[in-house]
Structure formats: C-alpha cells, structure tokens
Write a structure and sequence with these properties.
Strand content: 15-25%
Distance between the termini: 36 Å
Structural class: alpha/beta
Strand order of the largest sheet: 3-2-1-4-5-6-11
Helix content: 40-55%
CATH superfamily of one domain: NAD(P)-binding Rossmann-like Domain
Bound molecules: nicotinamide-adenine-dinucleotide, uridine-5'-diphosphate-4-deoxy-4-fluoro-alpha-D-galactose
CATH architecture of one domain: 3-Layer(aba) Sandwich
Shape: globular
Radius of gyration: 19 Å
Number of helices: 11
Number of strands: 14
Amino acid sequence: MAVLVTGGAGYIGSHTSIELLEEGYDVVIVDNLCNSDKIVLERIKELSGKTPKFYEIDITDKEKMEVVFKENEIDSIIHFAALKAVGESVSMPMEYYSNNIGSTLVLFELMKKYNVKNFVFSSSATVYGDPETLPIVEDSSLSVTNPYGRTKLIVEDMLRDICFADKSLNVAILRYFNPIGAHKSGRIGEDPNGIPNNIMPYITKVAVGQLPYLNVFGDDYDTADGTGIRDYIHVVDLANGHVKALEKLSENPGLVTYNLGTGKGYSVLQLVNAFSKASGKEIQYKITERRPGDIAACYADPTKAEKELGWKAKYGIDEMCEDSWRWQSQNPNGYKK
Ligand code: NAD
Ligand code: UFG
C-alpha cells in the first residue's frame, strides 16, 4: 500500500516524503515541476536511501492521473500540490482556482473510483483571516482576503461536505503556520523562483549577497516592536505532523482539523536577530510601508494536535535559522547549478 504525495518535489512535500520513507511508507510522488526541480528526487533518494516512484504529471489531467491509481495500490493521499503566491493569486485568480481546486476535484473523483479513504490536505493559517483572538484555535471563525486563501477555504468546505455525505472517508485538514528551515543535511530546502515573497528566503538571499537589504513591511503594528508577528515552524516538524496525521487517519476519525504551529510568535525584527546570530551575518534592513493584506499578529494554539496526534514542534527559532542558513549557504542558487 502506498501514500500518494502530490507536490512531493516541492518545499514541504520533499521534506515530508523523506520522513514517510524513513517511517517505512511506500511513497508515490506526483508533481508537474511547475515550482520545483527534478533534482529534488535525487536528493530524496540520497537522504532516505530509497527511491520513491515519480510521475511528472499535472494533477488536473484526470486521464494521466488515472494511470497513477491503476499502477499503484494507493491507500492514502497527502495533497500538497498547489500554487501558493498570494500576490500572484490576486493578478491571476483563474489560474489559482483551476489549479488548486481543479486538481483537488480530480483527486476526489479518483479516490471514489479507486476506493481510497484517507486524505490529508495542506491548508493554511490564512483561512483565519485577521484573527479575533490569539492564540488561534481550530474553531475560530474563518475568512480570507485573497484568491489563494479562498482556494484553501473552498477546498476545506468541499472536504467538510464530502465527509458529511460519506462517513467512510477520513480527512485531516492541516493548517500550517509559517514554515521555514530546511533538512539538517542542507541538501533540500526552499527554492522560490525569482525574488522571494516570504521573509525567510528573502533574508537568506540578503545573507548570501544576492539581495541588498530586507524590506521590513511596517513598524507601526500594535506589537511590542511594531513589526509583524508570526508563528514560524521548522519544515521538518511540519513534515512529521503529516506522518502523525496519517497514523490518526488509520483510526477512522472521519474529518479532523489541526493547527500545525509552535504556539510562539516572533516579530520580523526578532527573526532577523535570530538569523544574524545563527549565521554570523549582519542583515541590512529598511523599514518600509506595510504590505497590503498583512495582519499584525498570527500564532497558533497547537494543543489540539498535541493531544490528538501526539505531535509537538521540537525545533526552536535558532535551529530554524541555522538550518535555513545551511541550505542557502551550501546552495546559493538553490537547485540551479
Ligand atoms: P511548493 O510550491 O514548494 O510545492 C508545491 C508543489 O506542487 C511544487 O513542486 C509544484 O511543482 C507542484 N504543483 C503545483 N501545482 C501542480 C499541479 N497542478 N500538478 C502537479 N504538481 C503541481 O510549495 P510548498 O511551500 O511546499 O507548499 C505545499 C502546500 O502547502 C501548498 O498547498 C501550499 O499552499 C501549502 N502551504 C504552504 C505554506 C508556505 O508558507 N510554504 C503555508 C501554508 C500552506
Ligand atoms: N515580511 C517583511 N518583509 C518581507 C517579507 C515579509 O517584513 O520581505 C513580513 C511580513 O509583513 C510578515 C512576516 O514578515 O509580518 C511574514 O511574512 P511572509 O510573507 O513570510 O508570510 P505571511 O505570514 O505573510 O504568509 C505566509 C504564506 C501564506 C500563508 C501564511 C500562513 O505566504 O501563504 O504564511 O501559513 F497563508
């Protein structure tokens, strides 16, 4: 029996594939490489000592995807594949709806046809919008402000409807907070195309001299130092959360939803300081305007995942920064030669 990992060549999917292989799962990766590189597959093999089956397929192509279900005995699906750039989603909403929702519909149809019962979905803290209370618990109100976030909320709603209608399904909705860090080996990590949107890859590119300074988006938020606060979580901790979620699904829980965060918030300036300490590099920054759509603070209450999954983040901010730096300094151009 195999786990189908969609988007397994991507940042979180590659780290999760390694944890799954190390736990003894058979892994089948499907990725169209629209935001990743084939070399990741070699690195997964190098790090795990195992070769996951790989299909270079666009998941929205149902005919091609059906081959994957015919050729493998798929027991569970972890669905990472999605477009994820918030700004791009505002200018290209159709691409986001057809890719993120279209791919999920294809998977649902094939799950039904091939009797696959277990599904783990990559959701995001973005579905909490601007939270009314902190830390954020799973039953907080949900709202979104951009097409990317809306695709996550729509898929969550679809999953709730589908599970209501079919009690034999088991679904884990995992709401990630802010993943950073990289595998301890420095062989896999986050490799965004072009100028990064997210803060950690931006900081690491400043540290290697590819960008001159960090723009700190606003220092007039209602936070201790005025900069935005987020719950940064090590990508390997996040990956382990998926292994725990699969274990949970084997108990037939129906639909379950968990925050995957550390529960601790760090401001932009605290993150910059932690990174400087970990890397020995001074990070130049300039305070600029707030970025439209940003919120002041966002951090998880992760106790539900701890109680029900037996999962808790192990790594702190220092290790997150050390590991992001190891990846970037050993691979200044990411996966590109
Ligand atoms: P990523 O871009 O590194 O990985 C996604 C992978 O999916 C890429 O390898 C891409 O090539 C592939 N893909 C996209 N559309 C596809 C399609 N139609 N067919 C086949 N492959 C396709 O992103 P990531 O950071 O690893 O994110 C994984 C998931 O987690 C996404 O669903 C994302 O929305 C979600 N998420 C990410 C973050 C974050 O900050 N990284 C936060 C919350 C949620
Ligand atoms: N920031 C800067 N400068 C930058 C980039 C970011 O100051 O160049 C600040 C932001 O204002 C924010 C913090 O750093 O305060 C984190 O910003 P990111 O862009 O790294 O992350 P976000 O919290 O905005 O969003 C990310 C993903 C979303 C996801 C969300 C919750 O991009 O898709 O985490 O998981 F929904």
